[in-house]
Amino acid sequence: MLQGKRDVETVLAMGIMEDVSIIPQPAGDTGKVDLTMNCVERVSGGFSAGGGISSGITSGPLSGLVGRNVFGRNQKLNVSWERGQIDSIFRINYTDPWIEGDDKRTSRSIMVQNSRTPGTLVHGNQPDNSNVTIGRVTAGVEFSRPLRPTWNGTAGIIFQRAGARNEGGSPLIKDYYSSPLTASGNPHDDMLLAKLESVYTDSGDHGSSLVGA
Fold it and tell me: Which InterPro entries does the annotation name (predicted)?
């Protein structure tokens, strides 16, 4: 029964089952017991929406689409959108905990985000008193896998493009104070980041140490 309890905890840890239970049944006259595991699968998706009004910038409609256990492989897909008076954020996150056909238990995460935030507090209004907004488009992918029983490794790459625009959507190179808004002098700056990370977990004291770059 102890092993059966561990199996139940392992299945629940996958995050795709609502309930898992074990029912013992006698196995004839052998003195053994057959264990039957009953599993109730979680709802694979959902939609949420809402809104609010406040003095803050982020007030506005909120909506999201959540997919759990996508394609029956415990893959997760989250799509969300937030719209405020000035700012807005659109996100797409996709996670595959175990890439099909890979014998190294490699997981994959993909992220895409498009955001717009106000820049007036830093750069001031334009001469026509219009607002300055900072737009960012970010996309990244990460792969993670066990290296040894107590070591996990992660490698990824992230790309970001950022630039300033006025209320009409036209790109801006200088702010109200004639200071440059981009390092390159172009309407937008591009940045590419590489990520390497190794995590050590000691099962004895449940501690962990992180080594990254």
Answer: Bac_surfAg_D15 (IPR000184), D15-like (IPR039910)
